[in-house]
Amino acid sequence: MGLVNHTVVTHFILLGIPDANGLQTILFITFFAFYLCTLLGNLLIFSAVLTDPRLHTPMYFFLCNLSVLDIGFSSISTSKMLTNLWFQSRVISLGGCMSQVFFYHFLGSTKCLLYTVMAYDRYVAICHPLRYRLIMNRKMCALLAAGTWITSFFHSTILTSLTFTLPYCGSNVVDYFFCDIFPVVKLACADKYVIETVTLTNTRVVPMTCFHLILASYIRIMFSVLKMNSSEGRHKAASICASHLTVVTLFYGQCALIYTQPHLSQVLVTAVQIFGNVVTPMLNPAIYTLRNKEVKAALRKLRGGQKPEH
Prior knowledge:
The protein is an all-alpha fold. The chain is built from 10 helices and 3 strands. The protein has a 3-stranded mixed β-sheet.
């Protein structure tokens, strides 16, 4: 067989948001505003939980982890997207593309696992209230949080390694607004069956497993709430779960549309992806504070410079 001359790809060109010609300035201002709100909202929650001793509980410990994840998750794709919109710079190095793929799936997988841990925390709090402090002690919380980060690190390392061990020697134009596995793998000049199968399995198995565990937790919670004699107890339990259920619905709704509906149009997939990457991380702080008196009180004291009561 004769050898074919190929140019090895050292960088990629991101085509960006489809049908966005002439709207770059408007989109830049909108997404930049969302990004600033995401940073401000999540940093405020993180600071409030750290400074108020009354919030040093498992629920708020996991909420701090979620705030860190939202900042990182939003920054991965949004920062490059803003650069593309403002400077019209669509080039991304091979290393930069690898970093985007790795951190996007690392933080996305960590969020998925963290939502499951948070559902378990609510299950223990409502179904086993007398044993809650014993079960959800500091060591257990630290192990659960560390487990989500470590497991996601290995998960993302495997996906990224499989993606970029493929040879890229042809086109370097990525038909998307950031580097994700499926748009990048399409450009590989080799058999993609293994990586596509593994990626599809991972992107479906991990979220679906977590979703079913969350669903099982809330079914048990629902039965426990129905058995409560006190209407005040039911209201408190519903209040505890409402915020978490809202963010879980937003997260898994996006995953279901992107990864289980392969025939969706590129414009719709991009819109859903942007909503998940830019809007949802901004909404999470509002969702957790709108009905939460403890967090709102901590934020007021943080703003006023007062020391929280012990």
